[in-house]
Structure formats: C-alpha cells, structure tokens
Amino acid sequence: MDIGRLVRRTPLLRSAVYGLYGHRVEAHLDRARAPRHVGVMLDGNRRWARAAGMSTADGHQTGADKIPEFLGWCEETGVEVVTLWLLSTDNLNRPAEELVPLLGIIEEAVRGLAATGRWRVHPVGALDLLPASTATVLKEADQASADNPGLVVNVAVGYGGRHEIVEAVRKLLREQGAAGKPVEQVAEMIDIEQISRHLYTSGQPDPDLVIRTSGEQRLSGFLLWQSAHSEFYFCEAYWPAFRKVDFLRALRDYAARNRRYGG
C-alpha cells in the first residue's frame, strides 16, 4: 500500500501528518505580512451535515463550535479583527423549522464568545430585521464585551452588503438633514470617507483577507464596500471541517501575493 493511501485511511496517522505539516507551514509564515482583518464566510454547514448523515441543526451547531477554536488561531497569528458571517439577510427567508433553531444556535454562540472575556464582540447587520430576542442577545454581547482585551470579533447576523450601503447613506442623510443642511449641500459632501463612517464596521480597518469555505467562489454580498481591495481565498473544506492547516495555508497564500491596490 502506498503511503498516501495509508495516511488517508488511518485517522490518527492522518492527524499526525497534518499536524506536522501545519507546524511547518506556521514556522515559515511571514508574520510581518499577516492580515490585520480577516473576514470569513462560514459556508457548508448543511452540506457537511448531510454528508455525515446528521441533521441541519447538527451541522450549524458543529459550525458554531468551531468558532472559538478559529479565533484562537487568529490570535496566535497576529490577526486583530475578524468578521464572521453567520446569517445573511437572504437567510432570514429560510423555512421557520430551519431558521428558528439556527437563530438559537447563533444566540448561544454569541453569548459564549462574549462570556470568555477574551474578545470584543461587535454585531454587524440589520438588527431591526431580526427577532427581538436575537437582537437583544447581540446588543448585550456588544455591551458586555466592550472592555475585553484581544481581537475584535464582528458577528455578521442579518447582514447583507447592499443593505449595509443603503443604510449607511440613509444614516448620513438623516444626520445632515437633522443639522439643517439642504439636499444640494449634502449631495456635494457625500464621498467615500463619509459613507465609510456610517458603515457597520466604522473605525475598523477594511478586511485584508476574505476566506470562504465549502468550495463556493463568489462574494454573495459579503462586505461589498469594505472588500474593494481585499484578497480572497476559497477553500474546499466545509466550515465544520475547516482545520488550522487550512487557515495557515490561507495566510501563506495571502503573504505570497503582491497586493496592487490599483487593479
């Protein structure tokens, strides 16, 4: 039997090999070129569950359980901000039998992140579109973790990139209208900086690297405005099966790229 087949068929051996490989990749990472802000599209929970013969809720729960481990990897590699896309505005149209358990899993996951005392949890999304209980959990986590040290964890729940931009412009118009400025003057003052100031991620660096798991290769509206100059990494692994070595490969790929901000 060849070595590759033996490794694939022996879980403990496979784990040991990937562990050694991961240490090697990590040892050769250029920490000076690590991304400050990483956005992650946590995709593939349902497909992972289906392949494993499990329920959709089990897939979402396993995906939620992966998050603290992933944030630990980010801490180890010098990442400062992480944005996790947990639920899109489109996902709010899912059948109640899937959406209700998913919202419950998200609520527990967000509570858990805030309760660790390690990270600052910041909700990004249209809280007004969410059930009151979910919106309350997100707000409470934001307040409870505001003084925590460590990285900033944006939890994107009820998030859509187009909706975010529309809301940013609305906020800007309301703000200037309340100050008594005429429409013509407001129109002249609208620029990139003004819109950026009213986004959910106001005051944060734009994502340097956006990772999408599950093999899908599209943005789907994630951080549309902020990702104008981001690098993208698409991984075949479903989110519940995403390993540290997969993350390290993404960082290695990012560090090797020549970022040309003009296209």
Structure description:
The chain is α/β, with parallel strands linked by helices and 263 residues long. It has a single domain, classed as Undecaprenyl pyrophosphate synthetase (3-Layer(aba) Sandwich). 49% of the residues lie in helices and 13% in strands. It has a six-stranded parallel β-sheet, with helices on both faces. Strand 3 (120-124), helix 6 and strand 4 (152-159) form a beta-alpha-beta unit. Helix 2 packs parallel to helix 10 and helix 4 runs parallel beside helix 5. The longest helix is centred in the N-terminal third of the chain and has 21 residues, at 56-76. The chain is globular. It starts with a helix and ends in a 7-residue tail after the last helix.
Quick overview:
This protein is an alpha/beta fold and 263 residues long.
Q: What is this structure's SSE topology?
A:
Blueprint: H1 3-9, H2 11-27, E1 37-41, H3 45-51, H4 56-76, E2 81-88, H5 96-115, E3 120-124, H6 132-144, E4 152-159, H7 161-178, H8 183-189, H9 192-196, E5 209-212, E6 231-234, H10 244-256
Parallel strand pairs: 1-2, 1-5, 2-4, 3-4, 5-6
